[in-house]
Write a structure and sequence with these properties.
globular; about 0% helix; mainly beta; seven-stranded mixed β-sheet
Length: about 110
């Protein structure tokens, strides 16, 4: 299993921006897909965005046009740029490595509030 460490969460006002990072403890193989999930209190964990090794991306409808997922394989790191944040984006955000080495990070809290 791979250790994934998220960072970049925090408290931000509505309309603000945050950038989350997810760094892996070992080299990420380029064919491996990575993704960001989130879980709000009382709700199920949901997929926010994912990016394949080839760079193909998928976004949840609720974040399209506001969030951008990217990865830097050389740095074993994935990012989530979050703009125009809304209170409904408040959640714990988790990164995930898909596939045979399926792994999850410990999560980072994002709170959007005035």
């Amino acid at each position: 299993q791979v250790q994934l460490v998220e960072s970049g969460g925090g408290l931000v006002q509505p309309g603000g921006s945050l950038r989350l990072s997810c760094t892996a403890s070992t080299k990420i193989i380029i064919i491996e897909t990575m993704g960001w999930y989130r879980q709000a209190p009382g709700k199920q964990r949901e997929l926010v965005a994912q990016v394949s090794g080839a760079g193909a991306t998928i976004y949840a409808d609720s974040v399209k046009g506001r969030f951008t997922i990217s990865r830097d394989n050389a740095q074993n790191t994935m990012y989530l740029q979050m703009n125009s944040l809304k209170p409904d984006d408040t959640a714990v955000y988790y990164c995930r490595l898909f596939g045979r080495r399926d792994s999850w990070g410990q999560g980072t809290q994002v709170t959007v509030s005035s």
